[in-house]
Amino acid sequence: MKKLKMILYGLYMLLFILIFILVFSIVNLNNKEKKEYSDDNVKYEVFKVGYLSISDSLIIDDYDDFVKYFNNNSDSRYDSNGNIVYKSTGEIINKYDRKYFNKKSLGVIYVSVPGGNDTVIVNNISIINDVLSINYYVKDNSYTEDMSGYYIVVEINKDVKRINNGY
Description:
Helix content: 25-40%
Order of helices and strands: HEEEHEEEHEEEEE
Distance between the termini: 58 Å
Largest sheet: 5 strands, antiparallel
Radius of gyration: 21 Å
Number of helices: 3
């Protein structure tokens, strides 16, 4: 009887460990730092940037404004070659240079989330006339109350002048 209890206890512990590993894996899969999507030929990315005390939705149509905005409002910096370098990951992105802003602009939205493991999911993006519309929601993946945030960055043509965003 004692041997049976020991075997059952071992099986319960193994089951507990397997459940813990499964939950941990799911949380890590949902917590990627950068996600790139394409919706009806509109290219956009969602960057996890942590909590920022801003609530901006804006169109950036000039490289110098881009550098100034992200230097002031993100965990990024610029190296001597003009590349964006994310401090937390060391990732270098040189996609948005002066040449990019000659022909295109960026629509930028900051979304704060209540928990560090929560994610921002973009439902759809549309451009009608000169208005960029972004529909998104916050997916609650968290058991914590450590606020965080995401940038939704949309590549747009120069003729887009306004952003309409929301849940």
